Every structure is written in structure tokens, then in C-alpha cells.
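Person: Please comment on this record:
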Amino acid sequence: MAGVKPMLATAGPLPDGPGWAYELKWDGVRVLADIAPEGLRMTGRTEHEVTLAYPELHGLAETCDDALLDGEVVAFADGRPSFAALQPRMHVRNAPAAAHLAAMAPVTFVVFDLLRLYGVDLTARPYSERRATLERLALESPQWTVAPSFDDGKATLQACRAQQLEGVVAKRLTSPYRPGIRSADWIKLRLKTSQEFVVGGWQRGAGGRGGSIGALTIGYYDGAALRYAGQVGSGLSDSSIRNLRERLRGLARPDSPFADELNRTEARDVEWCEPVVVVEVEFSEWTPTGRLRFPVFQGIRDDKPAREVIRE
């Protein structure tokens, strides 16, 4: 099952009824963990290998002989999933740094689906059957766990609100696993107003950040068209700016990648770039003209392909 991509959820109102199961929406990064006789291989949504970044998860290789697990790598802060706490872990590409960070701020792999077991492809099986098989594996340790699943959507949503969690994902019990497909068989409801956006340009900062990145010009895909959503400068730290500069290096282009025509203020002093870098942004609401109100940068999403970023 090489090259499998994760199944994706569709944003929408939470369905109700006996044909659904409800899981928490984890504020982490999506990872497929492939356990085989030769060892463990972990990949993100872009199919890039991330095994090295999470050495505390390497023990998954000892849990069974052959399996393909779908889940989320999560960092916790004050007992709740925190994307900000996960940021230092996501971009590590050398073993000593990864080991140091794992000792200081370990992550948890929250498993919510099983795509293969002992050489048998389970993707055509219904979610309810895959879930029952996953639970029988008893994957429990301080570093990995099976995501809880509930049958009462309203109660799950209430609990998420009370605990200030990211949201809920409803999964149709009869649904097969559709690799790489955004399916209405999985429906997500975010409680936080945040989503991914594609960087199409950046503006230089002022003062101590003169000559560096002061704000990002961001958007989302509507079919093949990149739509402009606004600019975000709030929340950019020195470390995130360094990471952004590294990713934007070599991506400059002479013209705007956006299908919309930006006004003079929006386009002033923007350094345009190829739309490949994805970031997470929290905001208060969408304006009637399709712009973000009070956006705040949350982090870089190396795990999200730019072409899959849509308005949610």
C-alpha cells in the first residue's frame, strides 16, 4: 500500500443519528504509520517521511508485525492539544535535535483508523469494522493511544466546547476508507475559527524587522483559482519568520499568483511567491467581501499540500 494518502473530512454541520460515530478533532498533524518487518515509516499528508522527527514513536514498530495506522501526532500543553507546542517538533530533520526535543516535549500519536493488518487491505471494509479491529490491537502506551469514539454527537460537541478543544469529526459507520479523497462520509465541525491558508506573497516589516517578513499575503484554492483572503502579521515570532524565510527562499515570482485583482493597498510592497507554503491562521470571522478579520498566525503546515487548501 505504498503511496497511500489520508482520507479527508468535509466541513459542515454535525450530522445526527445512529449511523454515525463521533471523534474529537485533534489539533496536531496527520500521519500515516506503516509498520512492516523492516521497521516503521511515518509519512505526512504530503507523503514526506517524518519518522526521524518523532523518535519517541519508533517503538510502534514493536506493537505488531504488519499494520498501516492513520492518526494524528499531538503535543499537549496544560492538558489540551496545542498546535503551538507542536511547532518546534514538526520541522526537525536531524536525529540529535529530534532526540533532545522528544525528551523535553514528547508527543502522542493518537490513532483513529486501521488501513492494513497482517498484509490484508482493510480500506474497503466499513469504518465500524476497521474501528473494532483497531481497538482489539490494544495500542496503549504513554506515547500512543487509540482515539476515543462516541455515539452521541451533541454530547461530544458539548464536551469539546467545555474543554475548549478544536472540534468534532463525525464518521459514517458504513463508510469505506477512501485514500486521498475529501468525503462527505467524514464531516468535521471546527469550534475554533482557524484553517490553513496558502502564502502567495509577503511584505517587509518595520523597525527591528525591517528587511525581513512583516506580514504574509494569504489565500485559498477555489478549484484551480487561488483566492485572496487577506494579510497576517500578528503572531509572527522571530523563529517562525526564520522558518518562513527558509521555505520561501527560491520561490519568488514577478507577478501575483492570486486570481483576484488586489487593490492598491493590498498589493503595496508585496514580494510575490509561488503558492506552495501552507500556514495555519486563526481569525475572528470572514467579512462579507471574503477577507479575514483579526487574523493571527499559528504556524507552518508542512503536512498540508497547498492545492488541498480550500475555504472551510
